[in-house]
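FYI - complex with iron/sulfur cluster, inputs then prediction.
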Amino acid sequence: MADKPCCEPVAMNDCCNGATVLIYPCSGSSDVGEISDHAGRLLTKEGFGKMHCLAGIGGRVPGITLSAQAADKILAIDGCPQDCASKTLFVAGIDGFASVRVTDHGMPKGKTPVTDSNVRTIVQRGAEALRASELRASA
Amino acid sequence: MKKLQILGTGCPKCKKLTEATEQAARELGIEFEIEKVTDIDKILEFGVMMTPALAVDGVVKVVGKVPTPQEIKGLIQ
Ligand code: SF4
């Protein structure tokens, strides 16, 4: 039987020839946390990368943590300046990632409706941050 | 009996990881069984997002690369 193409399609991108991009929204309980979650899912649907489970990083689930460590690019989406997604990644020893913070884009915490247009703004900022980011050294 | 699972859809790197893992286990002289997990949904159940990957007794040890047999020995002992 012929070899299958390398590494398709677990992580959206071909891990051998293309960049594997993982996306970690904080998915917090507030409005801005919810926007981060929707943005992560929409970025995935639109092919910018693959949303992955931040809770698994917090829990040091081996398959999840090792996948993050091996990713070519990572985007953290934080709802507010608590930066829970970024900090969760850092504490697990994962660095070299791009990040976007919802409250930095005119969306105050507790006062921002979860609308398509607000989610779209974060999708655009996330896509830009990913484009501007370098491939991770540890990948 | 160590359960060594190779997670991957059957690409050349998965085959290399299988060979390296078999070599490592043989050199250690342990009892082992190798299972190839090729179903994407089963691979995702491990939380693994890129292949190849190696799980030892159900715990993922390597993701997205092929370590040397020497390195694998340290992971499966
Ligand atoms: S970053 Fe802010 S919104 Fe997100 S989980 Fe933390 S406190 Fe909640």
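Chain B touches chain A at residues 8-13, 15, 40, 43-44, 46-53, 55, 59-65 (CB under 8 Å). The first strand of chain B starts at residue 2 and ends at 7.
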